[in-house]
């Protein structure tokens, strides 16, 4: 679901961040890529 969030924009991204609040740094890295 994290990958799909990047395609949708930030609507799904919020859900991914909520599901994985323990690894916020990892999410930021994917956003830069």
UniProtKB/TrEMBL annotation:
It comes from the Eukaryota. This is Uncharacterized protein. It comes from Verticillium longisporum (Verticillium dahliae var. longisporum).
């Amino acid at each position: 679901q994290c990958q799909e969030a990047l395609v949708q924009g930030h609507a799904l991204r919020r859900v991914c961040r909520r599901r994985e609040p323990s690894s916020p740094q990892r999410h930021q890295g994917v956003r830069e890529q």
